[in-house]
Amino acid sequence: MKDFVSEKQDGITPLKTEDKAAELDRLREQEIREQMVLGPSGQFLAWRPKITKKFRDRIIAGTSALGIQGIDTDTSLRITSEKNRFTDEYTAEDLEKTGEQLNRSRQKFRAGRALGRLLRALSSRRIYTGNIITTALVHGGKIVKVDSDYLKMDKDELARREADGLVTNLTVDEVVLMTPSADCPSVTMFAPDVNAIGLAHCGWKGLRAGIVSKLIKTICDEYGANISELQVSVSPSAGELEYEVSEDVYNEFVSQDPSFAKAFTETTLQAEEGKKKFLFNLNKIIELEVLKAGIKPETFESSRLSSIGSEFFASQRRQGDSRSTNVSLAGLLK
């Protein structure tokens, strides 16, 4: 940790070396005890945001601690069942398949089973995995509204629908929102005054495109939500001391808003000659965005857990292309 700068430079957040790391470890251990959901055999199944305790009868939300292979890249895994979504049951047709078709059916089945476990970890209510829906990520700022007409679209069209965020006021009896990630945070927004919910994948490119402010605007414009009532939760992500980026990324954000410098810490770790490297706190960017938009600090929460620095979550940086993928779910119970 001694390679990190410890004096404030040009608005960059100072890092107090061992003290900072020790305090972060303490906060992470506390969060694991309070917010990680254990399965029957003692393994971690999911991270659950605090807002689900406050609104336990109204929403489900959380992020898997059991990755699913291919769910972010394989179109057929995004939409699989007769209801145009996921399935955790074999059909008679599946049992008759051979070769590659059989392997694909097995992969779909495994995805459905994993999602079923996640749903059971997040809620005692029986929720059909076939109601889960997601989009093809484009790492931008597009948000789609999921209503009854949206769900009537052809399954192939749904599977290829490009967006990084979803909003709905339908209950889990009709739809559960899902977004995949493997270091990027997911943002869940719940509007209790109008009973609407949103979920977005927030990679650095999406954050640069303003996806957080667009998610807020969509919920407020489409459903009439009061911004001061919005409950916002940010999932585990790459980690504030683990995610290293180039100076170009730093410059892109700071040129948009100088206050974004608070999300970066300069480091000399692995820096090329003449080039700076920065540790990038993705969740801090989201915090700055939502508070600037008018959301109250007491209705905002952000995980401190790191996908890169722990074995709980899948991580592109830690595991490479062979890794599985985390998924975040959000839905309205009533």
TrEMBL record:
Catalysed reaction(s) here are:
inosine + phosphate = alpha-D-ribose 1-phosphate + hypoxanthine; adenosine + H2O + H(+) = inosine + NH4(+); adenosine + phosphate = alpha-D-ribose 1-phosphate + adenine; S-methyl-5'-thioadenosine + phosphate = 5-(methylsulfanyl)-alpha-D-ribose 1-phosphate + adenine
Name the species this protein comes from: Candidatus Nomurabacteria bacterium GW2011_GWB1_40_7
Keywords, A to Z, come to: Hydrolase, Metal-binding, Transferase, Zinc
A Pfam family this chain is assigned to? Cu-oxidase_4
Designated name of the protein? Purine nucleoside phosphorylase
Q: What is the top-level taxon of the source organism?
A: Bacteria
Higher taxonomy: Bacteria, Candidatus Nomuraibacteriota
The membrane spanning regions, by residue number, are: none
Mention one GO molecular function: copper ion binding
List, alphabetically, the Gene3D superfamilies matched: CNF1/YfiH-like putative cysteine hydrolases (3.60.140.10)
The Swiss-Prot or TrEMBL record describes its family as follows: Belongs to the purine nucleoside phosphorylase YfiH/LACC1 family.
